[in-house]
User: Which sequence fits this backbone?
């Protein structure tokens, strides 16, 4: 597959200079044009299982703008597997750009009501005869975390004191926790409002030793909730782009990067720290914003 080795790019925004921290960005958004960022890492072992089990395809769940749905469609096609997307909500008159793209990569879409969506076993039962390998929403699960742990493969990561990442299902965060060394801390920024059960969901992806590692989850930077945004967040994204040449998405990475800035300014991340921000990709989600609000 045509994946690029992710680049590590040093940036020096004002807050980093002022608080004397070094800041590197792991640009997972650049590894593949469609299977963006963390999604490839999370999907790889599921796809391998689907192939090993001789399944005809994969099936998974998501919303109309889901990065995971699009990544799963494209990754399945590359691997010669069919793909089925179970989409939350009634079928809209116009498909979102995300879903249109997923269909272009061969995904068959099933729209189900929010109520049905909550009963995933029933949905699976309905598609039983298709012989599919099921992947949880967002790629959540131990194999997703195992794949995500490979994000930090290699000695190049030993020099960092803090690693910061956005958390949706927390699978990527859990993967990073698995790999960190004793001198390192991983900081996860939850992009949902009051999603306090996330901690338990992350714990269940970790073994006893991993649960004792140095990690912190923050719930203060959701900007109103999952996929919510406001002028402040959009302005922030434009400023980061103009000062650091780094595009962020409004659902995940902008909130995580904002959190990183606040935690640095509040000295939770002390001066002298060597920070790695994991850019998890997802930029296609910005296409759902009105044209022209972003300067990139
Ligand atoms: C899906 C996604 C995440 C969340 O990853 P989890 O492993 O579910 O926590 C973070 N950032 C981006 C850009 C994503 O698309």
Assistant:
């Amino acid at each position: 597959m045509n994946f690029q080795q992710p680049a590590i790019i040093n940036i020096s925004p004002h807050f980093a200079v002022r608080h004397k921290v070094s800041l590197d960005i792991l640009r997972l958004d650049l590894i593949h044009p469609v299977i963006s960022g963390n999604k490839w890492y999370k999907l790889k072992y599921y796809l391998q299982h689907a192939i090993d089990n001789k399944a005809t395809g994969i099936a998974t769940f998501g919303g109309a703008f889901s990065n995971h749905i699009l990544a799963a469609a494209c990754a399945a096609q590359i691997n010669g597997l069919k793909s089925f997307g179970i989409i939350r909500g009634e079928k809209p008159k116009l498909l979102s750009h995300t879903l249109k793209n997923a269909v272009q990569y061969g995904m068959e879409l099933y729209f189900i009501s929010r109520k049905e969506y909550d009963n995933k076993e029933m949905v699976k039962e309905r598609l039983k005869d298709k012989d599919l390998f099921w992947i949880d929403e967002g790629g959540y699960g131990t194999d997703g975390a195992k794949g995500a742990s490979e994000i930090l493969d290699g000695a190049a990561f030993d020099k960092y004191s803090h690693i910061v990442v956005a958390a949706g299902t927390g699978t990527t965060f859990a993967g990073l926790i698995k790999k960190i060394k004793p001198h390192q801390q991983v900081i996860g920024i939850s992009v949902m409002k009051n999603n306090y059960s996330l901690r338990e969901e992350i714990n269940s992806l970790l073994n006893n030793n991993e649960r004792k590692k140095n990690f912190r989850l923050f719930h203060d930077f959701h900007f109103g909730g999952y996929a919510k945004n406001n002028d402040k967040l959009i302005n922030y994204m434009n400023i980061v782009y103009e000062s650091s040449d780094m595009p962020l998405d409004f659902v995940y990475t902008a909130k995580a990067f904002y959190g990183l800035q606040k935690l640095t300014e509040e000295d939770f991340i002390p001066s002298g720290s060597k920070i790695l921000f994991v850019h998890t990709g997802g930029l296609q989600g910005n296409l759902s914003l009105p044209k022209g609000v972003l300067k990139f």
User: Anything to note?
Assistant: DSSP finds twelve helices and ten strands in the chain. The mean pLDDT is 96.
